């Protein structure tokens, strides 16, 4: 009798152990599967930050976001001037650059010329437009080498500079064409270094967002680099003063959709810089 009871108890314990093991494995498996799915979801989300599905294209990105109506090419120049030479530098620029702008034999226009007020100090910024693209640029450069006044200006300018750089730009299709305007105004040049491969995405968002920033005619022009530092975007804005800049920018946040543009475009940026600039006397943008 006692043996039967012990045998029955032993069988029950074995069955209980079996059930515990089976249930434990089931729980472990379900948890492992859930954890695996969770990790897979995290991996997919993480990879999505870096891996983008790109539709096959048979055209350059610049052709998709640049203006089709014109063949304009832009050049932006950044000149870092010796502090003691800034006054003399501005004078020779005002003596020579407007004559090139006004000469019909040169297929180019001086869009604007400024001194940086806030940002990198003792800096001059010049923006040129070449009507006819690269052939116009080549023609202008060739003619300037034969221009004695310009070559003298260039030699004298070289003695006043610490460094200089330039970029060739195209204009975004959805921005205004920069045209002369009366002053007084201050100008803000906001420059963005984008992550490679994100220019189309940037353009898609800003094509909608620019509508939120045109109420006070503050949008002057938008450009992206073709030669020089690549994946660079420059937005040029005009304001009456620093307070109107503050008021205008704050008003944009009250418009539905502006916050979404900022939310989606900030992750595309590697570096950004803001310059507040004052027009030189010879600048068509005053």
Automatic annotation (TrEMBL):
<protein>
    <recommendedName>
        <fullName>NIPSNAP domain-containing protein</fullName>
    </recommendedName>
</protein>
<dbReference type="InterPro" id="IPR051557">
    <property type="entry name" value="NipSnap_domain"/>
</dbReference>
<dbReference type="Pfam" id="PF07978">
    <property type="entry name" value="NIPSNAP"/>
</dbReference>
<dbReference type="GO" id="GO:0000423">
    <property type="term" value="P:mitophagy"/>
</dbReference>
<comment type="similarity">
    <text>Belongs to the NipSnap family.</text>
</comment>
<dbReference type="InterPro" id="IPR011008">
    <property type="entry name" value="Dimeric_a/b-barrel"/>
</dbReference>
<dbReference type="GO" id="GO:0005759">
    <property type="term" value="C:mitochondrial matrix"/>
</dbReference>
<keyword id="KW-0072">Autophagy</keyword>
<keyword id="KW-0809">Transit peptide</keyword>
<keyword id="KW-0496">Mitochondrion</keyword>
<dbReference type="InterPro" id="IPR012577">
    <property type="entry name" value="NIPSNAP"/>
</dbReference>
<comment type="function">
    <text>Protein involved in mitophagy. Accumulates on the mitochondria surface in response to mitochondrial depolarization and acts as a 'eat me' signal by recruiting proteins involved in selective autophagy.</text>
</comment>
<feature type="domain" description="NIPSNAP">
    <location>
        <begin position="187"/>
        <end position="284"/>
    </location>
</feature>
